[in-house]
Write a structure and sequence with these properties.
Order of helices and strands: EHEHEHEHEH
Low-confidence stretches: none
Strand content: 15-25%
Helix content: 40-55%
Strand order of the largest sheet: 2-1-3-4-5
Shape: globular
CATH architecture: 3-Layer(aba) Sandwich
Mean pLDDT: 92
Structural class: alpha/beta
Number of domains: 1
CATH topology: Rossmann fold
CATH class: Alpha Beta
Length: about 120
């Protein structure tokens, strides 16, 4: 069963996406900021990371760069609110494989996940 790390500072968003992923046969891990995500990534080596951009402690773009230093093959999908195009472009340049816009549309999340890990 593929593992997906869901990273968002909003517990509600982690729960919502986690439920969607679980219902579609994925094991879900959660982190509430970029630093926790980096630690969880190193400990569990998930198949995919679904990461919010704007978070306290360590933002998603910084965490993406750190994760990619640890594992250049890491598959990270960034999550952004509408109007964060500059940050989305920066995250793609930093190695993100895809991005999903908030609020989450379940179909969009699953298309992105399946594109990267089947």
């Amino acid at each position: 069963m593929p593992t997906i790390l869901v990273v968002d500072d909003a517990a509600f968003m982690r729960m919502r996406v986690g439920k969607l992923l679980s219902q579609n046969g994925f094991q879900v891990l959660e982190a509430e900021n970029g630093l926790d995500a980096l630690n969880m990534y190193m400990q569990h080596k998930p198949d995919l990371v679904l990461m919010d951009i704007t978070m306290p402690v360590m933002d998603g773009i910084t965490a993406l760069k750190e994760i990619r230093q640890v594992d250049s093959q890491a598959k990270v999908v960034m999550v952004s609110a509408m109007g964060q195009q500059a940050m989305v472009i920066e995250s793609i340049k930093a190695g993100a494989k895809d991005f999903v816009v908030k609020p989450y549309e379940p179909d969009n999340v699953m298309v992105s996940v399946r594109k990267l890990i089947g």
